[in-house]
Here is the input.
Amino acid sequence: MPEPLLYGKAMIAAALASAACTLILLGRRRPQSAARCNLAGALGMGFGLTLGYYFLNVRPAWPPATGLDRFLVVVLPFVLGIESLGGAPLAPPWLARLLRISLCAAIGSILLHNSVYVSGTRREWSRAEAVLTLTVCGVMLAVLWMLVIRLSRRSPGVSLPLTLAMSIQTAGAVIMLGGYLQGGAAAFPLTAALVAIGLVLWRCGELSRAPSFLSVGVVGLFSLLFIGRYFGNLSTISALAILLAPLLSWVTESPWFRRQKPWVFETLRFAVTATPLVIVLIFAKLEFDRKLGPLLL
Amino acid sequence: MRNYVLGIALAWFIGANVASSRAADEYTYDAVHSSVSFKARHLDISWIHGRFNVVEGKFSLDREDPTQSKFELTIQADSIDTANAARDEHLRQPDYFDTKQFPTIEFKSTSVKPIEGGYEVTGNFAMHGKTKKITFPLMGGKEIEFKGTKRVGFSTELSLLRSDFGFDKNNIGLIGDEARILIDCEGMRK
Here is the structure.
């Protein structure tokens, strides 16, 4: 059964820890260097997520046995490491870029490791199907990641982390409504940390210099949807709609939107992204009422 | 002299193998006349029943030395059937059996002891990515011949705690932690 109190505690812990960590690492000087801002964002996410998942009672197994375990124990630390490295002053930019591409290439295989799709005597995918599916998924993540980061540099605003957080939370809710509670609940700390760091950086005027926390959000969104699609009951259409929703923020880059007042622009950007998410959520709720609802009566 | 010793050793080796193959009878699991079912508490007031529809297995019964007998069973976890398609779909998800990650439930015996009316079987039970050693009484073992096929039947009932096998603790509540598994199976050989 869903435990709202537990989810609330996990969200508050993740938000407070990530905001405090980011604020401390940012220091008092303004403007701060891009490297420092990126490091603060990445480490803030790491600290917030660690505490958030602790309060959520998520204890991944070692060695990781499930898709969710591998997301928490392999994928998240890897992306946090890449983004922290990307923020280090002495690290060459090509190294972080290379590691990001490697993660995009490997993430599908990591999350599906030892599952019926890619191993065992009764594997569901042929070798060609597996290569094709994992390549398409890797390319989708790479494109999404690149476009979100490019947008955050071109048109920074608090609406971007908020729309990404909204997509992650919708992914969690839809996965839960499909019957995979633990997978959906994993979205709560991620959403809370992303919103908290976004607001801290926005208030400090450093949002445009710290895309690292958005990278963690993008990889988190992709991973949750991937796990929900291949281990849970999430449909491909819903997964794609949620994954691509943050890219609708690019629509607001057209001249008409750019001419609006800043608060109108931010609200419109938020509304454009929210529309497909609300539709997916409504369909997921209807499906829940039809299939799983009667089991709880 | 050397050839003589080698000859005796070879004869002993062949004899021993023939003797052992004679003693152990190999049976395959008869899916038509067998069932693996289970029940679990619902809200602690009643029981929900279900079964697994795809099961494979083999037994090796040594009548002369029962401790050499072996039992193996492989259950396809996604063949779960609780007479409610939506619930079955839910049970296949990662909060429960996680059948995409752990497609089979397996038992392999490690020791067998004869007891009154059957055997006491100890072995490794692997479910949901965790393996635990379990011991249970396996009653039966009587062989009959029907239309040229030799058949042997066994029955057992065992109790497992889902929490011992890594099932999500947050989902233990509505459906109780304890699951009772009932196995009635026939093995057959020509």
Notes: Residues 24-189 of chain B form a domain with the Lipocalin fold (CATH 2.40.128.110). The interface with chain A takes residues 84, 86-87, 89-90, 93-95, 98-101, 103, 129, 166, 168-171, 173-174 of chain B (CB under 8 Å).
